[in-house]
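Notebook entry, structure prediction.
Reason for the run: the old model in the group folder had no record of what sequence produced it. Starting over properly, with the input documented here first.
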Amino acid sequence: MKKFGYLALTVRNSCEDMMRNMRTISSMIGMVGLLVVGFVSVSQAAVLTKEDFNLYGYVDASYTHNFNNPNSQTNALRIFDGDANSFRPHMAQIVFEKEGKSDGTNVDRAGFRIKLNFGEDAKFTGGNTGADEVDFQEAYAQYIAPFGNGLDLRIGRMNTLIGYEVIESPLNPNFSRSWLFGLGEPFTTTGIRASYQFDDVVTFSIGAINSFGGAEVDANRSKSVEALLGLNPLEWLSVSIFGFWGPEGTVGAKNADRVQIGGIITAQATAQTSFVLEGYYGNQANATPGRNARWNGIAGYVIHDFDEQWGIRLRGEMFEDAQGFFGCGGTAGTAGNANTCFGGLAPASQTLWEGTATLQYKLTQSLITRLEFRYDKSNKNTFQYGQRAANNQETLATEVIYLF
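New structure, fully documented this time:
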């Protein structure tokens, strides 16, 4: 009973800290709103009302039990759920935005988004691991130019165009993230992006960015490119083809360009059931001196809603890190234990498999709960069972998300 009392006190203290941070950022957002209106002329500002601005977000917390009971208290090779046998306040996210419109005056066409994260996950949502629990995941200005159907231009930090899963847990089918997302894809990008919707079937986006890892400051003098082609040939079928190309080394380094190409197929089989398939291939010669990088993977999802409250999500995945370039890059005890392996050593190469089953229940439209079991397997002993190395791990997690 004392142990559970301590856990309850810990959760309460974490929630109190989170609420203090929320009050602080609410004040900051209010100041930003005043500044935005202040930069618009008096005649233009009269056009804008509070309905033109959106303020929303969510709070996310979980508990994860690792059946291996690792001495390091680490769920190996996980991204946002790296703490074993622990409660974790993942994220308190606040979004303040004005969306640009494809018609109207210049005031209507201009927009912006500020997305601010607090909590354990914020340590690496911006592409850099560290101790800071506050991160601007997105901060960009927008203008929809009067060209054809409207050319959407954005500059700043944005979510990447690459991949199916995203940082925001409520937008993903499962609680834990795939290795395709957590190891082999960028989270955010910093640069400029142009998007155009040709018709109801074809959309295209392309951006010039600093780096694959989302860094705010470029490590070299050249920019990389990411792109996304979206196709919706049938009402029930959508296809996305994404790609990345660019130099990822530092100034003076003899690195080859990094290349990644992949796609996502989504099929809405019935009103309640959908299937998703994602796959990609990536390569970079001499990613570090004398060491190439090649990574590829595939993940399949089954998403079924029994009704408006109950649903189940299944995921199966294979990820290959042929030269050990992406896996096992974290360190236990830092940055939320993200991407950490037993002993802290990266293997020369590694192939990973996982199966995940997530049961979701919505108490209300604003309160989402999840219960998830996941089994991880590797061809190397990168996991931990008690004090010894192991080639697998099983976890059971509960998650609560409140949307506002």
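Summary: The two ends are 34 Å apart (CA to CA).
The old model has been moved to the deprecated folder.
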